[in-house]
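Tutorial, part two.
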Amino acid sequence: MSEEPHQSEDIGQRVKLVRSAYGFSQRQLAKRSQVANATISQIESGKVNPTVGMLKKILDGIPITLSEFFTFDGKQAADKVFYRAHDLIEISEGGVSYRQIGGNLANKSIQLLREIYQPGAHTGRHELKHEGEECGIILKGALKVTVAGTSRILTAGEAYYFNSDQPHSFKNDGTEVCELISACSPPSF
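Running the prediction step on this input gives:
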């Protein structure tokens, strides 16, 4: 976890909003997500900014996806067909950018993302694990993809596809930005 007061306050306020909307106390969410109550308290108060992996672990306790978390407003958006670049929804903060097509994916079958990893950026020290299948293709740069303990560095034009209930993580060990397009079905990230 990193200290970034401005971003962490935004994330923390959103965690508190979503947790409250789902009717959980901090203690209940801590138990459901297996994350220390003190950690959730620090995140909600803006003292700590969680990694993507830690935030995913907390949200799994609700349960709500990262996509639903960052687009949560309590309203169902009308179905949209076309999206300009500025319409893509940012569902993360920090060195990893996830730009999602569409807002609320609750009744959708697929989640499509444009991902950008800055040099040294990664999904966090906790491996990700969620329902469904996941695939992606590297457009530029290189990305270390680890699935069920096996790692491979993929470069432009190379791709991955796996069952996302296996522990997995992503890291840009290179010196240039990595950009890729990924999909998850059903939307569970």
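Residues 98 and 115 are 5 Å apart (CA to CA). In part three we will examine how such features are distributed along the chain.
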